[in-house]
Amino acid sequence: MSAIRHKKRAGRRMLATAAGIATVGALVAAIPAGAAEETSTATATASESWTYGKKAGRTVDVQLLSFNDLHGNLEPPAGSSGEVTHVHEDGTTQKIKAGGVEYLATHLRDARKDHRYSITAAAGDMIGASPLISGLFHDEPTVEALNKLELDVTSVGNHEFDEGAAELKRIQEGGCHPTDGCAEGTTYKGAEFPYLAANVTDEKTGKPILDPYFIWEKEGVRIGFIGVTLEGTPNIVNAEGIKGLKFGDEVETINKYTKILERQGVKSVVALIHEGGAPASPAYNYDCDSPGPGDGISGPVVEIAKNLSPQVDALVTGHTHQAYACTIPDPSGKPRTVTSAASFGKLYTDTTLTYDRATKDIVRTTVASANHVVTRDVAKATDMTDLIGKWNALAAPIANRPVGHIAANIDGRGSTAYEKPLGDLIADAQLEGLAPADKGGAQIAFMNPGGIRADLVHSRSGQEATDGIVTYGEAYTVQPFTNMMTTVDLTGAQIITALQQQVSGSNEASPKILQVSKGFTYTLDMTKTGAARVDVASVKLNGQPLDPAKTYRVAMNEFLSGGGDGFPALAQGKNKLVGASDLDVFIAYLGAHSSAGSPLTPPAADRITVVK
Question: What is the mean pLDDT of residues 395-411?
Answer without folding.
Answer: 96
